[in-house]
User: What shape does this take?
Amino acid sequence: MGGRSGALPVPSRCRMTERSEPGVTLHGGGRDDARVIEVDIPSDVQYIEKVVELVQRECALMKFGARQLMLNLAVALSEALSNAILRGNDDDPAKHVHVMARVDNAMVVVEVVDEGQGFDIEECTLDPTTPDNVDREDGRGLFLMRKLMDRVERFDDARGNVVRLTLNRQ
Amino acid sequence: MSFAITKESEVVVVDVEGQLIVGNRQELKQKVLDELERGEKKFLIDFSQTGYIDSSGLGVLVSLSKKIREQGGELRLANLNDDLKTLFELTKLDTLFQIADTRERALESF
Assistant: This one.
């Protein structure tokens, strides 16, 4: 999967569950068995790479291509996790980020939940490609998430502030 | 994830091994700034062993580019794979950096 990964172990508070959902018959006669993983991590950016790796692995099993794994998914999910940890949870290690990823033959949907107040995705996305912004050191996160995913949604529910990323398999 | 620093002729070459993301960007920044403080002027960052880069990683490259330029130095990038090239194109950072296809070409360009 490209670059080397660090030696960070699975987070000590990482709770990972996998389950197969009832399959549906595909046009080609195959079965679509969705896989679901759930991970709970403390607010620490050192866990980002490990979580990305876990979701990449599930997508690889569903035959997502290398480019979608190493560019679209890796970068967009890193951004969502980074936002949740640094902004949503104010980099407070006492707070947690919950990640739920559902992968099947057609798409991956990842929900990243933090304990923050949420934000307006339209208001917070700036265009980093304008002449005024291109040499800014920040402000590319949401822009990249939206460029690299087929859909990015932000909403609140009983779990907290949710960012949902959807990527269709190509 | 690690950053290997070597010197080739008068150029400080940094190999980014693994990801360049929010969790390690500060390490890269500090290593390059330390070299800049020692008086080094020519820098090449080689991405041939890099996996992916997030917006924080891109931000640190922009920051280093400015700091090196302020000291009268130069920064070149080399060996971006297709995914990394796309990332630079999406953000138009390909217009901000001098990017070479290979390490050799980057070294020759100083």
